[in-house]
Structure formats: C-alpha cells, structure tokens
Amino acid sequence: MLELRHRGLWLAASAALVAIVVWGSLQTGTELPVPSGYDKVEHFGTYLVLALWFMGLFRRAHFWAVAGVLALLGLSMELFQYLMHAGREADAYDMAANSGGIALGSVVALSLSGEWAAKLEACMG
Fold it and tell me: Running along the chain, 125 residues long, what does each successive block of 10 average in pLDDT?
C-alpha cells in the first residue's frame, strides 16, 4: 500500500467497500425484478469501481496483484452463491462481467498512473 497520511481512513473505507460488495453478492432478502442482463452491468460496474479504488491505493508495480485479488473475490462470491443454495445462483457470465470491470479499471488506472489516493492527499495539503 502507498505511504498515506490517512492510512487508517483508507483501510476502513476499503474494508467497508468490500463488505458492501460481499453483502450485496450474498444477501438473499430482495428479489427485485431487473431488466434482462442488467445484473451483468452491475457486476461490471462494481468490479470497475473496486479496481479503480484499490489501484489508487497501491503502486503500479502491484496492480497485477490487485487485479488478481479482485478476480479471486469475484470468483469466491460466485462459489459461495453456488454453495449457499439460498436463492442465489453462480453464473459464469457474472464472473465474465466482473473480469471485464477489473480489466477496464486496470487499463484506466494504468493510463492515468493510478495512485490517486496519494495525489488526493497531496492536494489536500
């Protein structure tokens, strides 16, 4: 992780973000009707945001590791959905959407050099 002045805040926000994604991936209480394929957009967008977030907290040299950990998170959510048998279903297309979001987030982070958290802290003084 980058040397950040507000490291505890960044870690807490990161933990909250991951907890929200895990809860959203595994919760079974709401079955809202969504347009066909829209959940793939949700998967893509969620993992795009995760990639951009975490690549802002790590040096470029660690971007591949960040992408790998996010892919493992997505895969584990699909696996848990399969194992839970509680109204959620594992879907290879969900994993493809997750991977697509991670890929685009990686490209954007690499294009813009990532490490946005350190730049933000520098601007804030």
Answer: 95 98 84 72 97 96 97 96 82 96 97 90 89
